[in-house]
Amino acid sequence: MTKHQKAQAKTEQAKGKAEETVGRTVGNERMTAEGRAEKAKGDTRQAKEKMKDIFRH
């Protein structure tokens, strides 16, 4: 996994988790859903990069 893509995936995951937590705390369903979506985006990016690594070796 390239360092840039790995960092971007981790950032998206952390940002999404934080946004989801804040949304849940204040009772904002839209913010909670956006946080879940951001976290899923990071998860997907990380999985894609891991698959690339598998096929490179």
What integer is the average pLDDT?
Answer: 92
The total beta strand count reads: 0
* Order of secondary-structure elements: HH
How many angstroms does the end-to-end distance come to? 11 Å
Percent of sequence in beta strands? under 5%
Helix content: over 70%
Q: Report the major sheet.
A: none
- Quick one: overall form? elongated
In the predicted model, the low-confidence regions spanning at least 5 consecutive residues are none
Number of helices: 2
Structural class: mainly alpha
Radius of gyration, CA atoms, in whole angstroms? 13 Å
Please provide a brief summary of the model:
This is CsbD family protein. With 57 residues, the protein is mainly α. It has two helices and no strands.
Please provide a written account of the structure:
There is one protein chain. Helix 1 packs antiparallel against helix 2 (29-56). The protein has helices at residues 3-26, 29-56. The mean pLDDT is 92. It starts with a helix and ends with a helix. The protein is elongated. Helix content is 91%, strand content 0%. It contains 2 helices and no strands. With 57 residues, the protein is an all-alpha fold.
List keywords for this structure.
mainly alpha; 0% strand; 57 residues; elongated; 91% helix; 2 helices
List the helices and strands and how they pair.
Blueprint: H1 3-26, H2 29-56
Helix pairs in contact: 1-2
